[in-house]
Records
---
Amino acid sequence: MKTRITELFGIEHPIIQGGMHWVGFAELAAAVSNAGGLGTITGLTQKSPADLANEIAKCRELTNKPFAVNLTFLPTVNAPDYPGYIDAIVKGGVKIVETAGRSPQEYMPALKDAGIKVIHKCTSVRHSLKAQSIGCDAVSVDGFECGGHPGEDDIPNMILLPRAAEELEIPFVASGGMADGRSLVSAMALGAEGMNMGTRFIATKEAPVHENVKQAIVAASELDTRLVMRPLRNTERVLNNAAVERIVEKEKALGDKLTFADIIDEVAGVYPRIMQNGEMDLGAWSCGMVAGLIHDIPSCEDLIERIMKQAEGIIRERLQSML
Ligand SMILES: Cc1cc2nc3c(=O)[nH]c(=O)nc-3n(C[C@H](O)[C@H](O)[C@H](O)COP(=O)(O)O)c2cc1C
């Protein structure tokens, strides 16, 4: 399958693994890239630019295919050393960066001067247009279904993707709720040139997370995610658990008076213990509604092969036979 995205990134299949905190290490990125997709190392999971440089070097040992690094621009007072991380990316010879969060405008010159292709992940048509106007090469359009931060507009992909197609000139991939060949074909039908997946890639053999995390995704249905932190305008879709129930109770009780301090125990610094130790009720962790479509833990290669085969079958047989 050849699309503007496979051409842009020099990959075989139009499937991207989005950056994921404490999941997107070299092992997963390399496995996805070796399977013909685009794997992504999560920049900020690495404590320092030097650590990111090591992770990039490790990924290079595991694959000779293209891979990306995710840079998430957080709304924090003490900003991470973004110029340092970008330097590690440039020196590591990485040619694709997935940006997310705030606009990457300030860092575009540094990225573009190094010949890096930038795909910005955003949750609205207006942010996609902004990304296009500042020189991003592509966007990842992240619908309300997505695991992680869906923004505050609550527009599902069935509307958001065709709206993006109406307005954008640069290519875009569908993100949020994508799991299989059906997702890929429908995303293409709505105007996308490929798909970005987060939650689906956590439930794979190579994802370097505790088995409990993978089993929790397989066990979950589409009814099991919750939105938290809406009163802080930092909405996050997470898998329900005891800690998330506590957050939801506090949000109900405090309403607009909720502050970050009220939920700090459930959200701050919990990722390493959840993802690596498998302490599943410790805190809130991002997970998409798509968990309802995830029933197994295949290798990345089997997953991607299956997706492409199913997509081709749908296009050649199911859809063709309806004409
Ligand atoms: C556990 C987890 C952690 C994530 N961490 C990040 C992150 O650090 N930066 C980022 O840009 N996106 C992050 N995401 C979002 C994913 O890259 C992707 O956009 C999203 O998962 C797509 O929705 P899906 O889960 O329905 O496939 C995370 C998602 C998950 C599930």
---
Amino acid sequence: MKKLILLLISIVGLCFVSCGSSSSGTDSSASDSLQSSAKETQTKSSASEGDSSKQESRSTDKSTLVIYFSRTGNTEKIAKYLIELTGADSYVIEAAEPYTDDDIHYQDDNCRANKEQNDKSVRPKIADPIKSIDSYDTIFLGYPIWWGEEPRIIDTFLESYDFSDKTVIAFCTSGSSGIATSEKNIADLVKIGKQLEGKRFAADASKDEVKEWFESLPLNDEKSESKLLVSVNGKELTASFADSTAAKELAEKLKEAPVTVKLEEYGGFEKDKDFIVK
Ligand SMILES: Cc1cc2nc3c(=O)[nH]c(=O)nc-3n(C[C@H](O)[C@H](O)[C@H](O)COP(=O)(O)O)c2cc1C
């Protein structure tokens, strides 16, 4: 078994001398066949089926969900940049009783939005709640700032799901107010696995600004530590991805489908491989 583990480590981290090509210079009689699958990729891609129709399915990152509420489109624009950048699934929070222009006419003390923001216990109903967020590890949560805080409908959303094992990252748009108060409110309201520092954007923020922020998040480092679940003749092993082009290539292929790795002797001391995606 020890030998096999070493072998797997060499698959993921070391050899790949002929990455992507056929196995030159090999003994064609010796071959092993490994069925491998990325734990994360397999579970995530099937688990989102059946969720709300508002949840658009994206192909790349099935462990991330971008959720947002936007009444006049500013936050939506930022959210869409983020969705494009991450390839994440998305879900739009809409009020069961939609906010009219009068409802958000905040110069009027008695408008609906002002009344809601003045009462921390108000929980506006969501039109078509997403059934589950269980299959996601990372939640981006976007909203406009209303009177220095998150709109109360965001609180409705937060109290409807379990975030205790999620990484949550807020983002918002506003005229000028920052995001800090709303982030504190969110942290006080529900138990969150990990809350990363969010960001406030101006209504006219560019896609490059969003990209720069996204790339600065410590998220991407964590992802490179994904584990690989490998099944060999009914036995399961886990391996880590090395920081190499070949390992990244394998990770990409695992997003498409389970991968069979055909191993062959190479130079009598290490294994050469072919990736076969089914
Ligand atoms: C009821 C209400 C309260 C608002 N309060 C603030 C505020 O306190 N500070 C601020 O900078 N902008 C405030 N704004 C402006 C919005 O945050 C800003 O226009 C935001 O980009 C709207 O996002 P949306 O288009 O996604 O709805 C407020 C807007 C509304 C409707």
